[in-house]
Amino acid sequence: MADDSKPVYLRLREIIAASILDGAFSDGDMLPSVRAFAAQQGANPLTVAKAYQSFQDDGLVVVKRGVGMFVADGATRRLRVAEREHFLETVWPPVAAQIRRLGLRVEELDAQKA
Hints:
- By secondary structure, the chain is mainly α.
- It has one domain: Winged helix-like DNA-binding domain superfamily/Winged helix DNA-binding domain (Arc Repressor Mutant, subunit A).
- The protein has helices spanning about 10-20, 35-40, 45-55, 75-100, 105-110, and strands at about 60-65, 70.
- It has a two-stranded antiparallel sheet.
- A hairpin with a 3-residue loop joins strand 1 and strand 2 (about 70).
- Helix 1 (about 10-20) packs across helix 3 and helix 2 crosses helix 3 (about 45-55).
- The longest helix is centred in the C-terminal third of the chain and has 28 residues, at about 75-100.
- Keywords: DNA-binding, Transcription, Transcription regulation.
- Pfam families: GntR.
- It comes from Sphingobium terrigena.
- GO terms for molecular function: DNA binding; DNA-binding transcription factor activity.
- This is GntR family transcriptional regulator.
């Protein structure tokens, strides 16, 4: 979910993370260049560089000088673990509380898939 109150580089980071988790990029795959991703997202290249740097700081991407940035080995698994933890600790509790308040049943939620 997009959160306009978040800094742009964090929103870009979420887009990249979702792409990795969705399988658009696998471990070892090259990420788009800073300029290409900036153009695609309509963002400032410096802001994209900051988002990429945050992944590099977390060890989720590696830089091959003169070649580009690549998804690090094991990054998909580590990212999935971190995202699950964030979801269960931060996102799910208010959602679960709202489900209880509204008296919704799992069957009703499943019916919404169609």
